[in-house]
Amino acid sequence: MRDKKGRDHYLGRRTKLLSFLTLILTWWIISLLTSSNIVPGPWITAKCIGKILTSGGFFFHFYKTMVRVLVGLGCSMFLGIIIGTLMGLYQSVERGLDLWIMVGLTIPGLVYTIFSLMWFGLTEFAAIFAISITTFPSITINVWGGVKDIDTKLIEMSKIFGASKKKRFFKVVLPQITPYLFASLRFGLGIIWKVTVIVEMIGLSSGVGYMLNYWFSLYNMPQVFGWSAIFIIFMLLFELVFIKKLENHFLLWRPRIKF
Amino acid sequence: MAEIEIRNLSKIFESHKDSNLKFLALEELNFTVEDKKFVCLLGPSGCGKSTILNIIAGLEEPTSGEVLIGGKACCYGDDRTCKIGYVFQEPRLLPWLTVEKNIHFVLESQGIPSSQWKEISSNYIEMVRLREFEKSYPYQLSGGMQQRTSIARAFSINPDILLMDEPFSGLDEITARKLRYELLNIWRNNQKTILFVTHNSFEATFLADKILIMNKCPGKIYKEIKVNIPRPRDYDNPMLFEFNRAIVKDFIKFISPDEDLQIED
Known about the structure:
heterodimer; A: mainly alpha; 0% strand; B: alpha/beta; 33% helix
């Protein structure tokens, strides 16, 4: 059994590496067929990334974006978990809010951004407001679904065996919605990166989005590629290293699906 | 002393939408489960057997009448005083906890100090022969093993009374048989007051000291039968078959008196 596990792991790694190499190769071939102002090749992009990382402004802009992303994520998770939980637990809240959550979900992030910037000016607060409002409906929906899915039979069991209300919440309810919390975290992150860049592009004078816009206006494709690549790589690392680790830790008990 | 006494227990369910729509689920029940006895409640589906257990466990309140456990009135909700072990039809284990941790969960819920958990859990896990699976998660176990865990969990809190709601009806007959033997063995070494609900008359005959037969609409106990077959019992004991046949005959006559059912002797 251990052997099979090891082999699966090895095969998984090999497939991943192969797909990565294919991507680089395709990129390289396309770059050969076009000029570096349209698709800069991997080597030019790598050199450009090096230039960006060693330039003085990089950490400032990167740091700005990260703060917005994390604070925005925090706010939207907070709102989403509270509203989603209430919607899952109380039918009246659900009936009153479900339409508005749907409406909130359909409005594009760009619209929120414009509203927010016009209301609050070109400020940090406006940015974080726009980011949080765009993201929280999808988090709410995930949490709401999770709470509705709770197995009431397990709650009954814990009641019979004398678990206090606090224990029931932390040991029976919370673990059941944990997978949904992770789903919503991922979902939220996916949206939040995108919104943050848009907000920075149109309303702010710092951050990765601002730099993308800057190089866009100078029509410098390698720089645009370089900034995008850094951003994407960091996003991936965050997802793979941080969230995946957390998830593995918390959701070890779930069976692997064999289809 | 922890006997269960049911006095004039009635339960009426009201529809959520229309309070005029009422359904009499249990009518004027009276019975006693004597201390350290094994009593089976036998009845057709929908006769209110599970409702009785829910009321005794404090999940539901009776419309009238009372439940006494060890001579004291049963409290409802979070401030219950007696310890109740429960084995459900499905195992109802917490899927994110290992076998061992599932038992620790109920020990913790009962306020038993954590220094004793390890010893108690390994004791009861040993009893249901799941030593090698102590650290396994429920999804890694078969249905029978999950139900064994559930039995170990119910005994582990050293309950005043044990309630069992058709715990073997979801298992195949061979596994169910093994588990019935095991249950009786465990019970012999851990004398508890057990109320066991089933719709399987042979199971009731094999397990019980006393069988309470119910009929439905409204749920009522119409017969109490003492099973005077010596223990330990064997599945092939012809006395069991005789006994079971008499019960079934009676049962069918009562449940559907109009239908012309023939039982060949």
